[in-house]
Amino acid sequence: MSKYIVGLTGGIGSGKTTVANQFAELGIELVDADIIARKVVEKGSDGLKKIVLRHGQKLLQPSGELDRAALREIVFDNEEERLWLNNLLHPMIRNAMLLAVENAKSAYVIMIVPLLFENGLDSLVNTTLVVDIPAHEQIARTAKRDGVESAQVERIIASQIDRNTRLSKADNVIENTQSPEALRDTVQLLHLRYLAQASSA
Description:
Blueprint: E1 5-9, H1 16-25, E2 29-32, H2 33-39, H3 46-55, H4 68-76, H5 79-103, E3 109-112, E4 127-132, H6 135-146, H7 150-159, H8 163-169, E5 172-175, H9 180-200
Parallel strand pairs: 1-3, 1-4, 2-3, 4-5
Helix pairs in contact: 6-7
């Protein structure tokens, strides 16, 4: 891998997108695992064909798109089905992300991966950047953003790597409780650091 890759991660509702967009404003290309994960199961894709082959047409919406809610229902409490799905999709997502990185033109690339450490994808990056906020803020922000109950957000947080472990694995941390101006300054400083690291890599 010839590109210098910054792996950007953080718990749900921590502000990963806000931070990533500030790097984008500085001319850095983003490779977003969530967007790629949607692409590998879009209408007509091999991923979708294999899912339908296993579970049938009931997983398709009338438009022919994947019914994500129905798929979530199947894999949520079924470890075997979740493993099957992960074994199908993770290699596809990984390959598509690496291809996007190779095609990027910026001095370095930000790879946004919510489950960077959980899925072992930190092995693909040169350095890791964690966006962090206290758990109570995480719950409040996500519940408000997604219009869901706090208990549901707490379940999602519990399924992710715990905050202390994530922070211990981070090369850099952005505390996302600072003012928008301070956040911009922090991103600018990290940008200069990554430019220097990329040029000497």
